[in-house]
Design goal:
Elements (H helix, E strand, L loop, with lengths): L2 E4 L6 H11 L4 E4 L10 H9 L4 E3 L3 H6 L10 H13 L2 H8 L5 E4 L2 E3 L15 H8 L6 E3 L7 E6 L4 E5 L7 E2 L3 E5 L13 E7 L4 E7 L3 H10 L4 H9 L2
Parallel strand pairs: 1-2, 2-3, 5-6, 6-10
Antiparallel strand pairs: 1-11, 4-5, 7-8, 7-10, 9-12, 11-12
Helix pairs in contact: 7-8
Bound molecules: zinc ion.
The site of zinc ion has 7 residues, from loops.
Length: about 240
């Protein structure tokens, strides 16, 4: 089974389309949340996502706030401006889709999905090995895919040495995962690891093979739509910087 793993699409339709095309034919799509927020195309992204084969998706903090289920005061000024805009433009069918999502999913016997972390799916940022260590105790499967930090990376647990290492995988180089790992495929619509290309991963559970990928997309057209919609300039600029 060839699975496309995506996260933090953030209403960036052009990036999402480029990822789907680059990934080619897949048997399933797993999405780690923040489908909306920041970008100019929330409804188009929800629609395209919901058409994907064997889709399993968990919600992110932006999705939950856009549904009105979290006070927008929890977000900083620019993110809040964008969220209020998303709330205004989200269609009834987009809202319905977001409402169906559960915070934790197990789409395969070896895989857990959560937006932030398994112990705090909505808010926790998996940024260091201490946070990773605390979270390895919070899920039963070998692998947990998370998003939220917008950084393509993974935490690998060496059970024998009881050591956890943070690894930045090489783009386009498939690796076979031994032991347990917490894996972030990176962000489709707003990368923050100084590489502006859209990020995703291809995962094959049967062979435990992971292939981190990046793909270029037409950033300028997305920036133009952000400006047209009157969304914060910062959210346009950061796309070309990859932060
Ligand atoms: Zn996000």
């Amino acid at each position: 089974m060839r699975v496309l793993v995506v996260s933090d699409i953030h209403a960036n339709y052009t990036a999402f389309e480029a990822v789907l095309e680059d990934a080619g034919k897949v048997d399933a799509v797993w999405c780690l949340g923040d489908v909306v927020g920041y970008g100019p195309d929330p409804n188009a992204c929800v629609e395209l996502l919901s058409e994907q084969p064997n889709l399993v998706c968990v919600p992110g903090n932006h999705d939950i706030a856009a549904m009105g289920k979290m006070p927008t005061e929890s977000f900083n000024g620019d993110a809040r401006t964008s969220l209020l805009w998303q709330q205004r433009v989200l269609s009834a069918s987009s809202m319905d889709f977001l409402h169906t999502l559960s915070q934790i999913e197990e789409p395969h016997e070896s895989v857990t999905l959560a937006h932030g972390s398994p112990r705090d799916p909505i808010w926790e940022y998996m940024l260091n090995t201490l946070t990773a260590r605390l979270n390895f105790a919070e899920f039963e499967t070998d692998f947990c895919f998370v998003g939220h930090t917008h950084v393509q990376s993974m935490f690998v647990l060496d059970a024998e040495k009881d050591r956890i290492s943070l690894e930045i995988p090489h783009v386009g180089l498939p690796i076979t995962l031994n032991g347990r790992a917490i894996i972030n495929p990176g962000s489709v619509g707003q990368p923050r690891d100084r590489d502006p290309r859209a990020a995703y991963a291809i995962f094959t559970p049967e062979t435990r093979s992971l292939e981190p990928q990046r793909v270029e997309y037409d950033i300028e057209s997305v920036q133009a739509r952000i400006r047209e919609a009157g969304l914060p300039e910062k959210h346009a600029l950061r796309l070309s910087e990859g932060w």
